[in-house]
Design goal:
The protein has helices spanning 12-24, 64-74, 88-93, 95-117, 156-175, 197-206, 226-239, 256-270, 300-306, 314-327, 329-337, 339-349, and strands at 3-7, 29-34, 54-58, 78-81, 125-131, 179-184, 186-188, 211-214, 220-225, 245-248, 253-255, 282-285. With 351 residues, it is of the alpha/beta class. β5, α5 and β6 form a beta-alpha-beta unit.
Amino acid sequence: MRNILITGGAGFIGSHVVRLFVTKYPDYHIVNFDKLTYAGNLANLKDIENKPNYTFVRGDICDFESVRNLFVKYDINGVIHLAAESHVDRSIKDPFTFAKTNVLGTLSLLQAAREYWDGNYDDKLFYHISTDEVYGSLAFDGELFRETNKYDPHSPYSASKASSDHFVRAFHDTYGMPVIVTNCSNNYGPYQFPEKLIPLFINNIRHNKPLPVYGKGENVRDWLYVVDHARAIDVIFHKGRVAETYNIGGFNEWKNIDLIKVMIKVTDKLLGRPAGTSDHLITYVKDRAGHDLRYAIDSTKLKKELGWEPSLQFEEGIEQTVRWYLDNQEWLDNVTSGEYEKYYEKMYSNR
């Protein structure tokens, strides 16, 4: 019996991973541990919440005693760690929260796993999901982030993730714990909290609100459909080599301004508006502090070793994504209004 702890499983990427593991592996017991902060929403998992091999536990990864008890109660023998504060703008305003959750929270999980597994690492794995932002910024010369790149984080968010990556590797080197680290490019798709660029702009286009673009919109990001990321996590968890790092990317670079124009085109079309209707919403704003110029991931190692590659081209993925948000406006409205947070606070305060 595999008892898999997935942290942050009510969030954007985490909910897709939980859904995949619960449905694909009925003989596994999946324990979803999530604090239900603003970015966690159990509505993301309505379709699998009553599955017999699924358990949700509300809790904080920084609460070491709770995490330790979780390992004992559910006999955890595998961890997929996604819980994190992830929005760069928020990290600039509140770096302490990012250091606490991303660094100390990861350390809490590592120590609980080490204590419970107690040197018996057969069929155990601590899989830590990180970001390409730990590598810093790339120039426009075709260079890609590879697993051998030195770390060069430029924001409090990326610095906190870099630190957590180092702790994970240190637990392997010091205690022999079986670990894997993956660094992934920007994800997009259903259930993403609408502070992030793509769902924010879909919602703003829908309501004819401004589309704020940092600087001149020249910054470049590599985009990966979230379902493809979940597929990569699945194959790496089951077939990846212990102590290795794998980069997960979409081979799909877009300048922010070009991405936004594609989103406008697709969203206007699906809303039945004439082409170009929402172009005037583009609003250039002061650039973000420490804004990295370009990220681009080389996933060659993952493809060669484990056979994974993205399944969707961006134009196909973005149309599916826009259509999902427009078809799920109740979910989007509940999230943007904060009503879901009030519901969970009331529900859990009565327990």
